[in-house]
Amino acid sequence: MTKYLNPLIFLSLFCLVFIFDAQKSISVQISSILPSGENKELIREFEKLNQHKQLYLYYEDNTPKALLTLKEIEKRLLNIEGINELTQNPQQKAFQERYFYFLNTIDHKKADEIDVKKELEKLYQKMVTSPFGFRIDQKDPLELYQKSNPAKKYTKLDTLGYITLLSLDKNINSSKDYNRIYNEIKKIEKEYTGLQTFSVIYYYVENANKIKTDTNKIIYLALGILSLLYLLILRDIKLLFHTFTSLASSLLFALLISSLIFDELSIFALIFAISISTVAIDYMFHNYMHGYYDDMNFFNRDVFFGMLSTTGAFFILSFSGFTLITQITIFAILSLMFSYLQFTFLFPKLKLKTPNKKFIFQSIQLNISPKLITLFALLFIFISFFNLQLDTNIKTLDVNNEKLNSLHQFFESKLLKDKKTAILLKEPSLDSLINSAHEIKKEYPTVFSPILSIPSKAQQNTLEKSRFTTLHQKINAYAKELGFRKEFFERSYFIENISLPDYTLISQEEFAISKYKQEYITYLIVSKKDYEEILKKQNTHSLSFKELFEQELTSSLKRLSILGVITFIFILFMIYLSVKEEFLKALNFILLPIAFTLCLTFFYPLNILHIFMMVVLISIGIDYGIYINSKSLDTQTYKAVLFSLLSTFAGFGVLIFSNITALFSIGITALMGIISLIILLMIQKGTR
Amino acid sequence: MRNIFFYFFIFLTTYSFAQEIHFKEIKYIFALDSEFSKQGSLKIDDKKIQLKYQGDSKSVLFDPESISFITKENKEIFTHEEQQEYTIFFSLVQGVFNNDIKKLQENFTLKIQKEENLLIPNEYLSSIIEKIVYKKDKEKLVYLHIYFLNQDKIKIVQLD
Asked: Taking CB atoms and an 8 Å limit, are B123 and A483 in contact across chains?
């Protein structure tokens, strides 16, 4: 029965993960690693408010039929469920028409000087002579308001191509829909050589695919290396099967519990934590190599201290307040402890035989003094600190989709005069929110927001009623003289019956307004050149991931530094507790990996994941420091450490093959650490 | 000298194969609650159209690149984008007289009915025009009615 216990645990956890739908909490969005706080919540609110996604089309064809072909493509795309014509929101349009005189600014000079009768005569002539009809804007027949040209449906470019826009239904929000629409568009795109399309949903689809492909590649590589280790070196398939099953169980256990703790679990945190979990193999190796599974001896003091130091370090760091770090540390603690329990209490019952083979390290040793190594490591760390630069831009950790970035830039440069970005506006009342939005628009005319279709009280108060009355009377009197219909200008410049809307009755969703806690929020689309200035205004908030990450990092730096120091003291304490007299030798297992990884500062700035991986290396290093300098040291310990290092490479090192900066950063740091530990095993005097 | 012959040849090929159509246009303007009638002519070939109203010294020339307003003394040239309404009008004329369905489908959805053809405007034209109906008897245009959303109407009838 006991031999089936391991697979049974795995199957039970597998079922529980599905019952609790734990995998649903996994998120591929970079925002899921943003520290939690008001700013992150505001970004989420903005994402809910701004659900208006566009589909850009560009068709280039050196024939006069380019436009016709584009229209044909457009028709085909409109047949795809979820793709619509780009139309103005009807509620916003109705407000813009009704409150035209409130929302727009009259040309006072022109209004003072205008000869109403002469202008009406001109209108009359145009109507009669125009071959295709002439439309009079009844709101402003005298053209006293500046009008923006209506956006053209098709924009012709110098390259003999045309651009047009379609919109995506606001209910299209799931990755399933994104994938369906993406695939259907791409199918059509393949049929037209000169066609290029772009939508922000492409990022979700392509980046998620890239992450998935990358993750699969890494998992296969890691499994391959681990299988080689077990099959070629240990030659024990039973051990391989049970180790994989136990590791998988511990991952499922950690995923299950993490999904109950976190609403959203970042895929980056998950991959990183899975890699950390493979470190648990060293618990098994030490027990296995020292014959603990033969003797049914459950307690290995060194392994226990190793596990305690690693999980203890993670526990301290879990208080960092950083979502990413919290997710990784909690997941890793759960997975490592579960692995430890299995390797300690379950494996002895599996009747695994300890191997006895000659060890390769017996022929290599340089016997360098531990003091010298400590000195070298400290010197190297000291020099590297002068070169240390931090890259706090969270976006560099994301997938770098250059093709989509350049497509996005192409469409933006062709359709927009200048680059735009979003800012969030937060005010205690609807009244002040609408007023603030209009105040900003007055100062920066290129600002756009759906809320600007609602007139403010200030706009109503500044209207010169007498001017409107005069204009209205004049235009109607002369129109009658010239033979216009009596009622044709009855609404022109007439504001008597227009009153402000009741703000509380407005459908907030239609105007991108949302209630956040006790306040109201909306977004403004602003020119990048005005961005910094507008952000200085009260109640405006940045919606940039990069800025928020930097802000939170700066504000959490003090806390992180304190936690780093506590972790270091904890580790020193654990070393002392475990090895006492061999303290310096064990310390080198921490210092040398740090020195080696700091080499990276000579090539590029370190990001948050380089630094976090260094902390993990410290935790791993201390495990090895304890094992190697333990009183019970023998050649089996070396085997266990070497196999652990190989398995660590399988877990972390393979990440250097990733194209995602976040994962590559982890991989390269791990690789430097692993190399340093192998070197240390070979050169340190008295280490063996 | 060779250039003169060349331009003469171009002139001949351009105008000798063009069909000239005389028409009567009755325009009802809702704002004035009045009808205005005038006669004009259209010279149509594959690529160009020239429009001229009786008693008006100005003519309008539409070609694939531009729209020109020509008087004896002056010629003003505009791009199609600058004169969108004229562009649509001339595309409509080209489509109807040359029986060019593809041309008509650039801006309209065509519904061929028993008695007459119906054009429903696409995109932004739908905020100006309600519908267009026309009837042809072989090559001759019996009538073309344009119904605007502002309740204006234009009726065009071919005279010869």
From this structure: no
